[in-house]
Amino acid sequence: MITRRKMLITSILSMVFLIGCAHKLSLPPSEAQRAKFGTVGIVYGSYVPESNFDTFAKSLLSGAGKGALEGFFLGAKAIEGSANSGPLGIILLPFMAAIGAAVGSIEGVEAAVPREEAEKIEAAIKRAFGELEIQKTMAWSLFKNCSTLSDYKFGLLDRQGPISPDQKPTYKILKEQGIDTVLEVAVKRLGFEGGKGNNPSISFFMNVQIRLLSLIDRTEVFFHEFKYTSPPRPFTHWSYNNGQRLGEEFSLCYGTLSEKITDELFLLYPML
Amino acid sequence: MNPRHTKRIFVGLAILALQGCSMHPSVCGLRPEYPELLYKVPFGNVNNQGYLTFVMVDSLQPTLRWEAFPRPNDRGKDNRRLVDCVHNVTYDLKIWQMNDLFDLFEIKLVYSRQRLETPSHKIEHRLIPLTKYFWTVRARFEIDGHTRVTPWGLSEKPWKSGASPCKLDFIPYPNYYRFTTPF
């Protein structure tokens, strides 16, 4: 039985990684472009990235029944009353409600989550994202990684990046401050994706958009959205110890993406 | 033909067919030499889709080997400059431990080395017996005074038709080089 389930999981994994996450890469900058990079200013988005934590939880709840809804309300109350729940715990509260009910096999009335309660949860999750400083942490991780390269000079510039997902600043003003190239990093989207049912296996993902702009040539040298996807894990793994493992995954994700981005922009040699 | 011979040939062919066929797939980046990269297509698979096998290494501290950089096929006309100007070639190696017990699929980076001076490396501590590992390697070199790297090595198979996995910004798990440890 276990072998069969394993085979099924392996097949699903193969499908996910062969189809689902196929992010085709644009070409790395040419050597001629790299030669002009000079001083690189790293800027980052200052908006809350889009997430599917709340909608994902609600989709789990919609089929879970009365017990789940009660748990959901408790989750909302816990958010209202608790200052001790860390931001990761808050992100995971709606899931805990849904999974708690599903694991207990409570079957009951299917009902929509009342709007007021859903809004409370959504607002709390947004606040939690703000506390996590996802954009700044990603940029800092990238800056740390880039700083190990001796060929270029890097600086991390606060409050210079886009303030909304659609904004595309030109950064002309940074030229006067001695910046030759701008590396804009923006976490666009993050959340969970994957299965349903009792204690489903779900993957954490994060999409990071990179724009590299030459202020000398006034051109966009590179544009790509990098994606990090964790292996799928049961929800109980993520919820362990108030989101401790989700926190560890965040750290791994920042590090992995930073390394990928640094390699692609500054190190990878275009092989013929 | 002797009926006995015919029978033996038939039995041999049947065994081969049941085992499926193994091949050495193309790679992106540097090719592993030990353990070798083996792609197996099970018998009767109409889509020709197979999987990379976990080849068993000879000890819990195996010496992994891979092709040196620049490779023979880098010496083509278009890469002349690359071959002539490259120096200080070293290698970066990464190994992940894979756990797929009790339906939990886990991959953890357990070993990482940078700037290895030769295209081989003996793992410095004992690995866990009967455990599956993924690994990859790349060359790090200097050209025109700048540090550059090759892409991380990965197998081009398994893959569905369309763009090559070499063009992705990550290594899909089914395409990692791999081995398993003995008892």
Explain the overall architecture.
- The complex is a heterodimer of chains A (272) and B (183).
- Chain A has 272 residues and is an alpha/beta fold.
- Helix content of chain A is 50%, strand content 19%.
- In chain A, strands 1, 2, 3, 4, 5, 6 and 7 form a 7-stranded mixed β-sheet that branches.
- About 10% of the residues of chain A have low confidence.
- By secondary structure, chain B is mainly β.
- Chain B has 2 helices and 14 strands; from the N terminus they run αβββββββαβββββββ.
- In chain B, strands 6, 8, 9, 11, 12 and 14 form a 6-stranded mixed β-sheet that branches. In chain B, strands 1-4-5 form a 3-stranded antiparallel β-sheet.
- In chain B, 23% of the residues are buried.
- The interface between A and B is medium-sized, with 37 and 32 residues.
Provide keyphrases for this structure.
heterodimer, A: 272 residues, alpha/beta, 7-stranded mixed beta sheet, B: 183 residues, mainly beta, 6-stranded mixed beta sheet, 3-stranded antiparallel beta sheet, 14 strands, 13% helix, globular
For the record, give the distance between the C-alpha atoms at the N and C termini of chain A, rounded to a whole number: 48 Å
- Intertermini distance of chain B: 46 Å
Radius of gyration of chain B: 19 Å
Largest sheet of chain B: 6 strands, mixed
Mean pLDDT of chain B: 85
Percent helix of chain B, as a range, is 10-25%
* Helix fraction bin of chain A: 40-55%
Give Rg of chain A in angstroms: 21 Å
Strand percent estimate of chain A: 15-25%
How many distinct beta strands of chain B?
14
Number of helices of chain A: 9
SS-based class of chain B: mainly beta
Q: Which stretches of chain A are low in confidence, meaning pLDDT under 50 for 5 or more residues running? A: 7-22, 101-112
SSE ordering of chain A = HHEEHHHHHEHEEEEH
Largest sheet of chain A: 7 strands, mixed
Q: Tell me the number of strands of chain A.
A: 7
Q: What percent strand of chain B?
A: 35-45%
Broad shape of chain B: globular
The quaternary organization reads as heterodimer
